[in-house]
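In this supplementary section we document a worked example of the pipeline. Step one takes a protein sequence of length 124 as its only input; no multiple sequence alignment statistics are reported here. Step two produces a three-dimensional model, which step three serialises into structure tokens for compact storage. The input and output of this example are shown verbatim.
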Amino acid sequence: QVQLVESGGGLVQAGGSLRLSCAASGRAFSSYTMGWFRQAPGKEREFVAAISWSGRDTYYADSMKGRFTISRDNAKNTVYLQMSSLKPEDTAVYYCAGRTGVRLINSETEYNFWGQGTQVTVSS
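The serialised model returned by step three reads:
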């Protein structure tokens, strides 16, 4: 059983930056495709970004391109989400997720493991 624990959320002003981290338990982390999702109040959870097991390939939701960067450090069993130029509409709970398949997928139903989420609040 893989456990994912997110950290790094908080309150930031519009235009600011945050880096989220997701630490994974288990030795198989380097074989998982990892992703970030978010859920704003009253809205459905949406895809943010995904990264291949090697870190070589990434995939972003269109609205995040150029502002968010996903990366991973397999030696540390950690995946990151660097967020910049944050907007109030980026306010949400951000979730880390993993899947055993190799494809970069934007559908949450394809992910096998989930963290508990970390709150990001962007003030105007």
